[in-house]
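Exam review. A common question shows you a sequence with its structure tokens and asks you to describe the fold in words. Practice with the pair below. Do the first one on your own.
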Amino acid sequence: MLLIAESGSTKCDWILIDRAGNRTLTHTMGFNPFFHNEDIIESELIKNELLFKNAGLIESIRFYGAGASSEARNKIVENGLRRVFRNNADIVVDHDLKAAAISTANDNPGIACILGTGSNSCYFDGKDVMEMVPALGYILGDEGSGAYFGKIMLTKYLYHKLPIEIAEDLEKEYGINKEKIFDGVYNKPNPNVYLASFMKFVYKHREHPFFKDLLYKGLSSFISIHVWCYQNYREVPVHFVGSIAYLFKDTLEEVARNFRFNIGQIIRKPADNLADYYCKKLGYPMPKA
């Protein structure tokens, strides 16, 4: 059996593929080695009935995740996986940027961008990824991400700078106040996920002038930092994965027109495309149409 995993900071999508080409989708919390150790990874995997039941049958695992960008951090994820799955399984752990590149460009050159809970970009030559600008995380960077927009909105709310009708609806929908915001940001785990959780509210009000301006400026900031850094950004397609890119596609396309570059694919989740890619590479049957 082949197991494909694509993990953001919020959620991990798993696709289990048997030798007949049958696919089963399941989910766990997202695993990011910046925040999660081997014990957490093991305990969460054991809770998943599908994964735990088939653990001894899995021959190959391809795991791509946020934060898996160094040998030491990748080893945390690999060790957590090996505690649950066959010790001799072929396990590859790599960065979510590589997943974004493979799932959109396959083996072709292009620029791959992530716009989800966090944000990042790379140039993909068809084989390897290259980063020109580092991802700085939700405190210092993550321009155009869910955490970025959530942080700006909550800051505006606390400074009494939100339009009154938006502030009132935010309070009504979330029962929000300064104490609850501080608790979510400073006391509870994964504040980046907490900040990004408000994107449902942003989407609800996406046609409001305040959010239209916020979204355009935030996505423009991402492009100016994370796409302009590649000299050939107008010569190759610029691909996007992630919920922010997908949900706010219209604004992203407007930014692309004004910045004069060509968008390639915009996909919400890379897992299905990754499954197709590795089925072909590893000799598993493709699903029937």
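Now try the second one, then compare your answer with the model answer below.
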Amino acid sequence: MKLDDLVDRIEKLKDSNISNTINNRINEFKDLNKDSNEDLFKEMCFCILTANFSAERSIKIHDEINDCFLTNSEKDLAIKLKKMGHRFPNARAKYISESIKCKNELSKVIKYHDFNKIRDWIVKNVKGLGYKESSHFLRNIGFDDFAIIDFHIIDLLVDYKIISKPKILTKKKYFEIENILREIADMTNLSLAELDLYLWYMETGKILK
């Protein structure tokens, strides 16, 4: 398998019913109220939960906790997360509690003209969010030019012999792979946000968030 094979497969999916589901999901991302620091922070909490954990289970936990992300203490959040079966209840509760200090800055930060500065600010200031999780957050609030590079995406690119599997996903390696994905997005006339959903579907058979 090679790059042309991957592009062909994506093009076929674009002509299938999956494209409607993906388009609807992208529109849902864009509809989130970017002027609400509370809504932005709750979505950020979802991305904190998903790190090294199931996206599907994180969705269920996130929906149930909801406004408690804004009001509960670290201890109470940890108890809730543990009860709901999160793999890292204490660490995630700590990250969320420490990051709430950034909440009131979010609507201002995402209006920066330089999109890379937005992501860099999040990585620097929000505990528990690296480049992958920050990109995930930005995609989920309507930005479409960041790649979410997790093991699903890496494995797919390795299978198609587009990259060699990195031992460690450093910042430099993350940007290298992101640029490769940007080239694939250009070849398929997709945004990086759309491409991510197509690739995730190819690897998992699911379209989540």
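Model answer, second protein: The longest helix spans residues 171-187. The mean pLDDT is 95. Full marks require stating both points clearly.
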